[in-house]
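Annex B. Sample input.
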Amino acid sequence: MKLIRVLIALAGSLAVADGFAQTEFIERAEALELQGKFAEAAALLTNALSGASRPAAERKQLEFEADRLVRIRKDYPLTKAALFEALKASVKDLGAEEFEAWIGEGRFDSREIDGERRFMSSSVSNLYFRHPELESRRIKPKDNAALEQARLASVRSIKQAALAEKQPYVLPKRFRNTMTVTVNADAAPPGESIRAWLPVPRRYPFQKDFELRSSSPVAKEVNSRDSSIRAVYLEAPARKAKPTKFQIEYEYTAFGVYFDPRPEAVKPVDPDDPALVPFLRETTHVMFTPGIRQLSKEIIGDETNDLHKAKKCFDWIASQIKYSYATEYSTIRNISEYCRTKSYGDCGQEALLFITLCRLNGVPARWQSGWNTVPGGKTIHDWCEIYLPPYGWMPVDPYMGIWAMRYARTLTPEQQQEIRDFYFGGLDQWRMAANSDHCQELSPPKKSLRSDTVDFQRGELEWGGHNLYFDQYDYELDVKEVKLPK
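Annex B, continued. Sample output.
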C-alpha cells in the first residue's frame, strides 16, 4: 500500500507539472526537496524536461536543478548507523547514549532524503572543528606543531622584509607544479573526446613569470595571463576499460605580501569608478539580505573608516565562525547567508561572507582562489582581496584568521593574534592563485553543467556535452620549490 501511495503522489506531481512554467517547476521541486521528497522532486523535473520544447537556457537550468538533487545525495551518503560506526573508530569511549545526545544537539549536517535521515560525508572531521574540546578524545590525534611554527616563522620573515624594503612584495619563491587529473575508466564511451580544463596561475603583482613546461596531451589553449579564471584546455579520447590521464607541468614565481595600511592615510573609495563598481554590488552568493544587514550593524556600528570597517568584519569572522568542510558549492543557494546562519563554513564560505559584509559597507572586495601549497598543509583554498586607496588591492584570508585564533593550539595567544593580523593585508608565498573572481566562465566555454559553479581548483571535465562530476575523476597537485632564475 505504501508503494501505491508513492506512485499516486508521483503521478499527481507529474500531472500538475504539465501546466507549470519553468520557475514554477523549480519552486515546486525545491519545496519538495526541503520536505525530503527527493524522488518526487526529481520526477517533477524529469517531466519538465521531457515535455514541450523549451529555450536552451531554460533547459539548462532545469537540468541543473535535477542534477543538484543527485549532488546533494552524494554529499549525504552516511546512514545513522554508518555514522555511529565511523565515530566509534575516531572518538574514544563513545557510546550509543552520547551519540544520540549529539544527534539531538544537531552536531552533524544531515538531510531527510526520501524518508531516511542521511548524514554528510565529512561529519567526523567536522565534529572536531566545531567541538575542539573533543581533540583529547581523538583516537588518532593530529600533530600540527611543526606547521604552526612554520606559519609563525613565515609571517614574521615576510613582515620584516616588507618593512625593511618599504614595499609589499618580498622574498620571492619559484615553484614547479605538476597537476594530474585521472578520469575513471569507462566514465565516457570509448572514442569520445574528453575535454579538460586545468587551473594555472594568473598574473598578479605577487605572482608572475608563468611558464607551461609540458602538457599531456598537448594543450589546445592556454588562457590569457589576466583571465579571471585561468586554465589550460586539453582534449583526449576515452579508451575502453582504461583511465584517461591529463597532466601539466608549469613554473611560476610567488612573492610574500605584507601591507601595513594606516587608517589616517586611507581615502574614500569612488563608488562610480568603473574598475571598482563590479566589486561593490550584489551578485551570486553576495547578497545584502536582512540578516546580513543586521549583522553588519552589529559589527560595524558607527565606524566610518574603510580600513577599520574591513578589519572589524575580519576579526568578527575570526572569533565567531568555526571552520567546517562544506557540501559542494553548487548545491547551496546563497553561500554567504549559509555561512552566517550556520556560524561555520569552509575557506570559500568564510571569504564570501567577508566579501559580502565589505561590499555592503562600501569597501570593494573580490574573490581570490586556487591552492594553498604549504608543506604539510597542501589543499585547494579560497581567500580574497579588498581595495583601499591609496594602497590598492591587498589580500585578506579570513580562514587564516580563524585557523590562527581557534586551531593553532600550540601557539601563545599573542602568537595567534600575530598570525591573524598578518593575514589582513598579508599573504605567504605558498599559494597558486588561478582566479580573481567567483562564478566565472571557462574558455573555451563548457557545453555541460559545471561541477563547481563558484570556484575552479580541481579542474572541470566533460564529454559530448555531459559533465564528469568530481566522483568520476581524481586530481593531484605535486609542488616543488626550485631555484629562482638569475
